[in-house]
User: What shape does this take?
Amino acid sequence: MRTPLVGIKGYTDLYRMGAIPSREDVDQTMTRIAEESARLTRLVEEMFLLARLDEDTEGAATGGTRTARQSVFALDLAPMDLRTLAADALHDVQALDATRPVTLTGPGGGKPATAPAHADEARLRQVVTNLIGNAVTHTPPGTPIRIGVGTVGRHAVLEVADQGPGLTATERAHVFDRFYRTDDSRTRATGGSGLGLAIAHALVTAHAGQITLDTAPGQGCTFRVLLPLADPLDDRAVDATT
Assistant: This one.
């Protein structure tokens, strides 16, 4: 949090000292202050979200009996198909970097398939957005990305796979830790806050699901979200034909 605050203070100090004389300079400075303010706002919101998730987790660990509706962090659960998120993720990649090859497949390859789940669509979109942003940010321009969706056993699955440099075993062990960045030399623009994957992990866990990572140096990264598969005979389940 200190970094954007230092930026905002630095720009305002320059203005007070008269070191930003022209209107054009003032406009550029205000743009930078707005960018730093937005970055700080996102960081505070991410930390607040994690704090709420932590409170629910601690309550459950101490024998609490909160339901999803009664919890501090309530999920808005509804029937959905992860194919919708996967298709939107494909367009998100193209919007972030139109030069990247991106494909939609089933889990591990093959044809994409229906993946019915009972979940909070808005929160899962946040998870997928973090995974897509991570893949685009931490791989060289033009690196192919694959989005997989379907079912594996009793799980609805959505995965984001890249062909980037991959991670070492040590990096993999800490990738979902809060504030962890695999390269300390990264700037805020490339390294982010180190909270995106921690939030993705916490949100998937709140859905009684799992998020895993398959990676090795030189072999890219495959993040896989697994959620309990909705019963196709349950009237809450998603109609795969819609």
